[in-house]
Amino acid sequence: MFRKIERKLLEWKQNKNKKSLLITGARQIGKTYIVRKFAKANYDHFIEINFIKMPEAINIFKGNLDADTIMMNLTAFLRRSLSSGNTLIFFDEIKECPRARTALKFLVEDGRFDYICSGSLLGGNYKSIPSLPVGYESTLSKKISG
Question: For the domain with range 4-11+19-141, which CATH number is right: 1.10.287.110, 3.30.450.40, 3.40.309.10, 3.40.50.300?
Fold first, then answer.
């Protein structure tokens, strides 16, 4: 079944001046599923970091937030090199790592990878973000109906 969100994701991928994409929506409605499916169909490489399942991943964003430092930390965390170009990096449950969201500005400017983030972002449990990536992030709301 093709969903409206899949069309929107394709439009985002094809945009030459794309920003990072933040997918929001209620819990348990398929945000992670749709990103995985999209990545499998449209990218050669896919990296998924879930900040709830992998809380130690927060350490990737400690210290400097320039793209080179983050990529070095991410490579060390994953214990493998990253292929720039047709690679999607997915930060799931990004609300658990506010510095990751701040870093999106520098990662998007760097241009080596595409970035999608998601999280339910509901309620007052959202941790303080030092600086929102204004101008470097697009938002897409995932509805229950697709």
Answer: 3.40.50.300
pTM of the model: 0.84
Give 131-136 contacts, CB < 8 A, sequence gap 24+. 131/102, 131/105, 132/101, 132/102, 133/19, 133/20, 133/101, 133/102, 133/103, 133/104, 133/105, 133/108, 135/19, 135/105, 136/19, 136/20, 136/104, 136/105, 136/108, 136/109
Q: Is the pLDDT of residue 1 over 50?
A: no
Mean pLDDT of 45-49: 97
Domain boundaries defined on the chain? 4-11+19-141
pLDDT above 50 for 9:
yes
